[in-house]
Each structure stands twice: as structure tokens, then as C-alpha cells.
Design a protein that fits this description.
Length: 555
Amino acid sequence: MHQILTIAGSLGLFLFGMKIMSDGIQKAAGDKLKSILNMMTTNRIAAVFTGFFITALVQSSSATTVMIVSFVNAGLLNLSQAIGVIMGANIGTTVTGWIVAILGFKFKITTMALPAIGIGLPFFFSKKFNKKEIGEILIGFGLLFLGLGFLKDSVPDIKNHPEILEFIQNLNGYGIGSMILFVIIGGLITVIVQSSSAAMAITLTMAYSGWIDYPTAAAIVLGENVGTTITAYLASMGTSVNARRASRAHTLFNVFGVIWMLILFKPFLILVDIIVPGDIFTGINPVIIPAHLAMFHTLFNLVNTSVSIFFIPQLVFFVRKLVPGKGPIEMEEYSFKYISTAIQDTPEFFLIPIKKELYILTEIVEEMFSRFWIVFSSPDKKMGTEVDDLKDMEDYTDKMQVEITQYIIDAANDSPQSGNAERISALIRIVNELESIGDACYNLILLAERRYQKKLIIDEAALYDLKPYSEIVHSFIGFIKKHLNRYLDDNELKEAEEMETKVDNLRHILKKKAQIRLQNGSNVKGEILYIDVVRHVEHIGDYAMNISEALRHLR
């Protein structure tokens, strides 16, 4: 029991040191990491180098992949860029194996560890230096290698514990089944310690101590590549569709690599043995086995990335099918660029592409409002990813607003005959009002989320009154969709004005009833939220009326 606790403590010290060092590096780099990501992900090759560079810097592929998932969730990276960065992160994480292989087993580790901690302490505690992150890096580095040293010393000598070797040998007699078993063991180790770098250090230590042979250790290393995807998977839970797709792509990429490697396992081991000095197959050499495993890890990820990089579009397609979007269209990227052609001098041809995009934009905001009402009117139903999905849709409407407006301006500047100033102004106004409806729908789903999380009580009669109010506004959006992109005659404009009047009158009635309920002692927070919902729904009616008025200028 004492030995087990000693090994657990050594591993804990190693993990703690790695976390402190990684946190310190990330703090020192600060927002530069984000700048590097945005600058160096212009194509798939650049994305791979970005992932390698950042992971080698922060010494944690988990930190990189979690960062990538959060960036995708925030819309800073698209799915293709994210997959490239994740591939590079797999290569970057092999640097840890080389550090451990070169320094961890060839020197007395405490000779480096304790001085590093000693140098780092003044930086960590002194306000004068104002470089606490440097202290964290040095202290983390020292604790990491101190933990590795304890781990190496606490692992029992195989000569005194032959039963361990006998147990492992019993698992080795099943051919490819044994390799798959060791891959699963590697994955489990990584899941348990939540760090592929720590799992790699454990594997190197076991191989160095003679617990496992070279092929077994290599199979465990493959499993660690799959196990490390769990962190990104957990980080993606509850995020946007594309963030979840990025984490699934990470898993698929690593699983694909393990599958082809198991097919070519023995030839690949021989190749590594040719590259690295020292014949690993003549017997266990504790000096050369860590270097062989580090090379195996690096070479495997290099080859896997080199092959997979050409199939990023196919991987993107597959994960989109695996994690389907719930919106009317894919919320990935939006581009609507004006290309000058002689045919667009004709007003009808100038309007065709704009009408198409405005219709899509109207469909999106219509679905956003529908999904809000479904959630708000069913408080017992789980929220799921509704907020994140509507945030994706709202971001998409923002991009559409910018791109469509720029298209209209570019087309008008390039072809003065394409339409008069009144038409151009009306089109831009319609785009802006539709985007405002999208913003209002997102604010409404946030209110629904607050009601769900805070368990706010809203009177049943109030919800009953709210239903016809929301139905009128939903009909108003449908009216806009039906009459979009054409001139609105007097009767149609009168119909729009009547709907707006109904919305205004109902808003006044609903707010007055809410005030009466407050005076009678109803839940204050619930009624305030109710009034906010009424206000945002009324704004949507106003935006719809503004669009109706703008349509009068599309002659």
C-alpha cells in the first residue's frame, strides 16, 4: 500500500508541476497565443504549424485543444482551421516525450529540479519583479522533474517483482488482440490522469524499469493518443455545434491513426529501430528504449498528420453529418461577395442575388423566434443547446448584415443604373431591421434561459395572455417573409399597420396586467422578466413595421 501511495504521490507531483508550468507559459504568452492562432490559420498547412508551435510552447495538447474548442465556440476559428490546429497539436505534444526521454533518464533529475524551484521562488513571491508567471514556469518545471524522479525511484525493480512481468506476458499471447488491449490500457491511463504527457511519462518509466517491452509500450502510446481526446470532448459539452464538431474531429483523426498503425505496427517498429541508434530487439536496454518510444510517438503523429491533412474537407463533411446543425442552414461561414459583371447594370439582375439572401435571412430570424417560443412556453423542457444554437444563428445574421450591405454598396458604386438612391437605402434598411429581429430573438432566448436556471415563477394566466401576443408577432414575421422583395401596395401596408396596432395594444394590456399582479403580491423577479419578454417581442413588431415601410420603396 505504501508503494502504491508513493507512486500516486509521485504522479500527482508530476501533474501538478506540469499544470503550474503550463499555466505560467500561457499567462506569459497572454493574448499573443490568440493572435498567433488568428494569423497562422490562413490555410491547413499554417494551421498544423500553429497547433504544433502552441502545444510545444504550453506543453499540453489538452490545453491547446480546449483552447481551439473555445475559439470555435466564439466564432474565431472555422471548423477546417480548427481541425488543422488539432493535428498540429498532436505533433506538438510529442515534445514532452523527448524532454522526458533525453533529460529524465540520463541525468540526476534533482540536480535540475531543485535549482529551478529555487530560482523561480523570488519571481513568484516578489512584487518587485512583477514576473509571477516566470516563477510559475520555473517552479512548475522543477516540480515536474522532481515528480518524474520520484516516479522513477518508486517503481519497483522488475528483478524483485517477476510476477509483474509474468502478468504482462500473459496478456501478450493474443496477437492483434493483445495490441488492441494495450491500446485500450493506454487510453484508460490518459483518461485517469487527464494528461497525455503524464501518461507518456508513466509509459516511459515502466518501459525503462523493464515492466513492459518496446512493442507493448508503443501500443500503450497509441492508446494515449486516443485517450487525450476525452479532454476536448468534455470541453465541448454544452457548446456550439461547430465546437462539438471540432472535438469529434479530434477523436476521429486519432482513432483513424491508431487503426492504420495497428495494421502496419511491426514494420513501423522496425523503421523506428533503424532510425534511432541501438537495437531495441536484442533485449531491453534501459538507456535507448525511451528514445525509441519518443521517436515512435513523433513519427506516428507526423505520418498521421501528413496523410490526414489532405482529407480535411472530407473530415469536415463527415463530422457535419455526425453532429448535424439544427438551424435552417449550416452556421459555418458566410460570404456574399460582389463580382462586377455587365449584366448587373440591369436593375432586375442586380436585385436577384440580394432578394435570395434577404429571404434566407428572414427564414433564419423566423426560426429563431419560433424556437424561443417553444422553449419559453415549455419551462419544464430541458434547455439543451438552444442558447448556443441561437447564438450561432445570431452571429450568422450579423455576418449576413455586413456582407449583404457591402454587396449593395459595391453594386451601387459599380453600376449607378442598378437602382436609385431610394431603393438602395430601402434595401440596407431591410437588412438592418432583419438583423435587429435576430438580436431581439437572442435576447429573448437569454430571458428564457434565466427563467429556466433561476426557476422563476410566472403566473399561468400571464403565459396564457402572452400566447396570442407572440402569435401576432410571429404572423407579422411571416407577413414580411411572404411580401419580401417586392413593392407593398396600400392595402398590404394597411394590413401591416393593423398588425402593429394589435401588437402595441396587447403590449399595453400585458404590462398593465403585470403591474396589477405585482400589486397583488406575485413573484417580483418573474414579473420583471415577463415585462422584459413583452418589451423585446414588441420591438420585433416595430422592426417588422419598419421593413414594411421600406418595402414601399422597392418599385
